[in-house]
Inverse folding.
């Protein structure tokens, strides 16, 4: 393990009764890295992060932050991290300014720092607005500002864009990029694969308490042999003929279009060109979501 890493996790194991939550989890996060921890519900993400953050004791293995064990809880480490939970926990009946000023007092940082962070997340005009009157995106930005008010080196973000509309999500992406560009290490959990692909330098995919793959999103996509989707007009080509011609591909159809999902799209495109079926053709390359589903499966997780 790299002693200079922001996080170094070695063979973490944790059980709850007969349930194995973590079964030998190991990974590293470099300083200044934007790192994603991805997995289905119940995969072990929350338990992993709670151990790394010093909130939960592992049965065995070790989690280090900046070279120091995170368990037992270390006040010096706590001052170097910021945590934004999926559901922001604010003090009741306070305005946005009062909220972040309360966090500033808890961390013993000057009030001016709270005002600066409120401005940094674009909420100065909402300073006198009570939290319950903020939109979902505004509340998430305030939660991130509260997590950053003491200027931590390492920031944990738990599904920061969950439930936000597309515009609010993209605006928050810009904020998260700025947080990382300022030199902070960011650890993100999210169920939005496009978000992880756009923001993260590397991701780890965890399932059943084990890390399945870890690396840059583009590397995971290539390793998983995820498919490319070619979408053609149904009126221009016969789906049955395509199935016979390309048995390794998955061909689906409806009244208006045919979708050919193939790990090798070049012969499919050549065939469609030969048949004059290129009008309004759409080609969708493999994504991190394809790689994720290849690794974790497609069955529903409660």
């Amino acid at each position: 393990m790299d002693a200079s890493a922001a996080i170094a996790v070695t063979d973490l194991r944790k059980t709850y009764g007969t349930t194995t939550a973590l079964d030998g989890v190991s990974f590293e996060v470099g300083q200044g890295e934007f790192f994603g921890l991805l997995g289905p519900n119940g995969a072990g993400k929350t338990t992993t992060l709670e151990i790394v953050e010093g909130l939960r004791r592992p049965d065995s293995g070790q989690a280090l932050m900046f070279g120091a064990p995170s368990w037992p809880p270390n006040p010096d480490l706590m001052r170097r991290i910021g945590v934004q939970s999926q559901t922001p926990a604010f003090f009741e009946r306070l305005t946005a300014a009062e909220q972040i000023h309360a966090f500033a007092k808890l961390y013993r940082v000057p009030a001016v720092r709270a005002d600066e962070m409120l401005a940094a997340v674009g909420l100065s005009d909402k300073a006198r607005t009570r939290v319950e009157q903020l939109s979902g995106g505004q509340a998430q930005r305030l939660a991130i500002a509260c997590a950053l008010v003491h200027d931590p080196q390492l920031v944990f973000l738990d599904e920061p864009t969950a439930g936000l509309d597309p515009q609010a999500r993209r605006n928050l992406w810009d904020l998260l990029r700025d947080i990382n560009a300022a030199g902070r290490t960011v650890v993100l959990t999210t169920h939005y694969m496009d978000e992880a692909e756009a923001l993260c330098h590397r991701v780890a995919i965890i399932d059943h308490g084990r890390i399945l793959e870890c690396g840059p999103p583009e590397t995971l996509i290539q390793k998983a042999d995820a498919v490319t989707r070619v979408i053609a007009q149904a009126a221009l080509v016969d789906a049955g003929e395509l199935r016979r011609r390309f048995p390794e591909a998955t061909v689906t159809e409806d009244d208006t279009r045919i979708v050919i999902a193939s790990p090798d799209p070049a012969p499919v495109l050549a065939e469609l060109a030969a048949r004059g079926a290129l009008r309004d053709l759409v080609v969708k390359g493999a994504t991190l979501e394809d790689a994720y589903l290849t690794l974790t499966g497609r069955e529903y997780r409660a």
The chain has a mean pLDDT of 94. The first strand starts at residue 7 and ends at 16.
